[in-house]
Each structure stands twice: as structure tokens, then as C-alpha cells.
Amino acid sequence: MINKKTNIFIILLLLLSFTVFGCSKPVKDGENPEQPVEEVKKPLAGGELVLPITQFDTLNPILNKNESIFYFNQLVYDGLVFLDSKLEAQPALATGWTATENGDGWTFQLRENVSWHDGQPFTAEDVKFTIDALRTSNGNVEKSIFSGFVKNIKNITVLGSHKIFIETNSAIGNQIENFQFPIIPKHKYGSPEDVFKSPKDLLVGTGRYKVEAYTKPNYVRLKSNDKYWDTSAFVPTVIGKIVPDPETALSSVEANEASVGKATDFDWEKYGEDKTLKTYAYTDWDYEFIGFNFNRAITADKSIRTAIAYGIDRHQIVNDVYFGHATITDTPIHPDSWLNDASAQKYGKEQERAKKLLADANWRDENKDGILENELNQKLSLTLLVNNDNPRRVEVADMVVTQLKEIGIEVIAEKVNWEEYQYRLNSGGFDMVLGGWKMSVNPDISFIFHSSYMGNSNFIGYSNPQLDQQLMEAALAKSAEDRKQKYRDVQNTILEEIPYYSLFFENNALVVKDYVKGNIDPKPYNIYNNIEQWYVLEEKE
Predict the structure, then answer these.
(1) What tens digit of pLDDT does each residue of 70-108 get?
(2) In angstroms, rounded to a whole number, what is the distance separating the alpha carbons of residues 75 and 531?
(3) Could you give the domains of the chain?
(4) Residue 180 gets which letter from DSSP?
């Protein structure tokens, strides 16, 4: 069963509610958010950035569950890998890696001459210690948001001071992207269990910035790490300004008390009215879809699913409900990902095509009431399950009802509370479901469609041996070229079969003071992406 309280950062869960306001320009298929064009001016040497962080329980990256600290900690700690702008894993504390022949393990070569912020050397023992600590949480995301990333790890062997072998239980879920969790120093703890037994703020990392001062409850001051293994940041000082909540964080940017803030709703274009602010949009992890129950004959019928795919106008939904701030997609692969097949077929509103599909399947409107019937005089009527604590999703459901009626399908939106929603998902009490997943850095989507997940996260009851095989082959792929091809095969099967009708990924935005310049390019995994390339102007405008 999906836990409503489960952490939202890395693991996968059905999305809950927001309230949205504002307006925007229309969205196009697969269109990524546009960024403002920067005018290059003279940087300010010795400047500082003020980043708002909401009240938190701990700065320890393993124990933290606060979203703002999750992003902030990426300035202080490194993983074995990091994700580039195409969501592809690149070397960080690991300089290279090779997979075993059967895909059930990785050998990592680690970066040499790296020091912890307290001067101690970084070694393979630190990597083993971090993984061992995470494994003590037994996959419980209530203990650590990174627990799920190591639950498939079977054994760890240190092969030298800067070489390590990590054996996994299976190839499924064994993606290299999993290894971007932060590495913590072994010498700061007695044992892996101590990380959870004696929770405390951990202020020593290997990252681009190191903690200079921490004054509760006001701020955390970072300074540039002059011994960092990669490019040093231009701005030498970062202040983490502690504020009560995300709304206050954003208002502190408006009040010129902070440099950067994450938008809290979909009305961020209003900040364009303030000449001292700029917004930088990005495609987030939040993926919305309509799922079909394959245990019911009507929705197991491919002609019905295909007609629905051509009967829904996603552009209208995005523009009217999300105010243009969503990126339309046909699969659950993130639009930014190097694995996303941009050439794949796109569904769109083609009502005449939808009507022909239904007519070819012998659905007719014999009584002229606007709803189609089959040869047994049974109406083409479907239920659409939606959780009523998400007003935006309820609005989408109402639009789907209206749009599908135009092609002769009666849809009854069943708006239920969260507990009933979960129960109906688990018991199969729906024809269609309007839902969402918080996708992760791991592109493996086996949890959605693989038959081994039926009765769990594959709550639509979908079973396809061909797709099962393709998902396995994608997990086992060795080279980048082979992996991309395998994921292309996966996407083509999803497009052909339509087990989900993908709607879109929601967009979000970073609101930035105009005196902050440089390569500002927020990503869902790191809103401070490229911070080392940011700078502040000599004269604040």
C-alpha cells in the first residue's frame, strides 16, 4: 500500500494536492521551459548568495527529510556520481565504473587526492561505511530518503584505498543513477548503526562548499572549498537563511533578504512584473497519467484505450488547469532524459480518428443520446477514480469527462478521499484512475508496468511478457548506445499498448534576484545546478 506520508524527494508515490493560480502562455508537445537570456556583466569578486532554507531537524544528509536542506546539502556533499542536464550519470567521487557481465554488480574506481572538509583523506572505506549505514535502515524511507537506493545491494568489497566492488541481488533496479546519494565520513562515527542511533548534525563533506558557521536558528554559513577536486565556485560565500516555511522563503526573495527561492505554486509569471526578479523554469519529477484497469474487459480493450488517447486534449488541460506550466509526454521517461525518445509517436486530440476507432469496434449511438452503445445495447460508460484532496486533479477529471463525452464515451468521475482512493487502487475498484508518480533519478519504470509488481505498484494489473523482457534488457544494458536503444523499445511498446495514457510532467521554477547572473539552470534533482558558474553583479540593480 502506498503511504501518504512517504517522503517526496526520491521515492515513488502518488501525488497529493496543491492549489494553483495565475496564467501563462500555451504549452506545446514536449516543450521544455524557456529560460531568460542573460546579459553578461562584470562579476562581483567576494560576493555572497543567500539561499532560504526552511526549519529543519538535521543537516545530516542521510537523516534529512527537508526538501530545502536536500538541495542545500548538495553544495556540501558529493555522491559517487552526479546527473548532468540530460539526467545521465557523470563521475563525481567515482572517476569510472564497470558493470559485471550479468549486471548484478559494479566496480568503482574512486577519485584520489580528495579530502574531507576537516582534512582527512577520502577513501573506499567511507563509501562502504555510507552504504552499510543506509542498509541498516532496511529500505525504510522514514529513516532515510536514500534507503531505497541501497536496498538491492547484497555485499560490498573494498578492493583498495580507492577501489570498491558493490554486489547487488539482481539487475532490476540496479541503475548507475542510484549512486548519487551523499557519501559521509567514516571517521566521524563508531559504527554504521551510530548514524541512526545518535542522530546529529553532520557538517563535514567533500563538496564544493564547506560549513564555516552554524547559528541556530538563524543561518548556516558556507565558504568555498579551495581544495575541491573540481572547479571552485566563483561566489565564495553562501548563506543558508533559516525561515519558517516555503512561502516565507519565497517572500524573503521578494523582500531582497534572499537571492534565490523556489516557486510555491504555478503563478510564478507574476514575478515578471518585478524588474528585480527573474524566473527560471524546469520540468519537475511530478508525472500525471490516466491508468487503465486491465482486469476489466472494457478498459482491457485496446481500441477503447486508443480512442481515449485521441479523445483527450492535453493542451487544453495544461493551459486551463496548469496555466501552461507542464510538459506534455507520452511515456513516464522524463522529457529531459537522454533516454527519452523524442522521435516517438505523439498522441493528441484527433476526435474523428477516435470516433472511427470506436465505430470500427462496433460502438454506435443508436438512441441518439450522445453516448455510444455496443451490439448488446450496453452504454460505453467508464468510471474515473480521482482523489478529492487534490483540487487540481479533480479539475482535470472534470475536463476529461467533458472531452470524452464529445466522442461518445460517458465518464463518471468518482471523487473520493485519500483512504478510499488507496483502497480502490489496491482492490481494483475502478475502470480508469487519474494519478501521479513522483519519479526518481532512476529511469527504471519496472515498478509501474512489470508483471512482477502486479498487486503492488502495478495496480492496473498489466502483464505483457514482451515489455517484461524489454524492461529487463534495459536494466542489463552495458553500453550507453545499447541502453538508449533498449529504452526506446520500452517506450515504443508503451506507446503501442497504452497501459497508461501519459498526460504530462509538471513544471516548477526558481525565482532569482536580477543581480545573480551566470549559467542558472535548475533541475529537478538540484535547483542549484551549476552554482559554481553563478556570480553577482558589481552593482546590484
Answers:
(1) 999 999 999 999 999 999 999 999 999 998 888 789 999
(2) 9
(3) 48-282+510-536 (3.40.190.10)
(4) G
